[in-house]
Write a structure and sequence with these properties.
InterPro entries: Ribonucl_H, RNaseH-like_sf, RNaseH_sf. By secondary structure, this protein is α/β, with parallel strands linked by helices. It is built from seven helices and six strands; from the N terminus they run ββββααβαβαααα. Strands 1, 2, 3, 4, 5 and 6 form a six-stranded mixed sheet that branches. The termini are far apart.
Length: about 220
């Protein structure tokens, strides 16, 4: 029998909430012009990564792939010539994030590109998000407190695996490990529900937008 996903239940204890850690590789970083070229999705359920449910895929974008992006993720136009269309990708992503809390590192980037992708099929990015960079700042790991710490640096600080850097599935898995480690520590500081991490992310975004540096 196919397992049916339950609603995200954000106010439940955080280990009882369903999450998906998302990483996107793109043709560039221009939100108006560039598009997703690959995605990785690491599913978290019951406070652990469910490897069997993880998902990775390529997409054939409308835009050119910048040389700078190829240098990072090594994905060329020839590699995606037969990959799904942006619309097919959007439907896949829509299904992946449905009834789940989305986790990403420097989540504003993933949120923006997800929203652009979903717009192609008449949807918006409405899934709640947790930013692992914000969790790192809450832990005091980031000495700058304003700039986002690099994902690999955060993983090393939390002593969790760094999996295949700059590959979408590898980075999604690393992000999932960072979240689980950070959430376990923050739980002792009163962050006990999925919603508490969503609120922490929203508060961090507001603080950074205002230019305020915490004492």
């Amino acid at each position: 029998m196919r397992w049916r996903r339950r609603p995200s239940g954000r106010n439940l204890p955080w280990r009882e909430v369903d999450y998906v850690a998302i990483d996107l590789e793109t043709t560039g970083l221009d939100l108006k012009r560039d598009a997703i070229i690959s995605y990785g999705a690491a599913v978290i359920r019951g406070g652990r990564i469910i490897v069997a449910d993880n998902s990775y895929g390529l997409a054939c974008p409308d835009s050119d792939i910048s040389p700078q992006s190829i240098a990072v993720h090594t994905i060329r136009r020839v590699d995606v010539a037969d990959a799904p269309s942006p619309e097919e990708l959007a439907r896949t992503l829509s299904d992946l994030i449905a009834d789940r809390v989305v986790i990403a590192h420097s989540a504003w980037i993933e949120r923006a590109f997800l929203d652009n992708a979903l717009h192609r099929i008449g949807q918006r990015m409405r899934a709640p998000m947790i930013d692992t960079a914000a969790l790192c700042r809450a832990l005091g790991l980031d000495p700058d407190l304003i700039a986002d710490p690099r994902l690999e640096w955060a993983a090393n600080q939390l002593q969790v695996p760094v999996v295949s850097p700059h590959h979408a599935m590898g980075d999604a898995t690393t992000t999932a490990h960072v979240f689980l480690a950070a959430a376990s520590i923050l739980e002792a500081r009163g962050y006990t529900t999925g919603q508490s991490f969503i609120d922490l992310t929203a508060g961090d975004r507001h603080t950074r937008a205002s230019g305020h540096r915490p004492n």
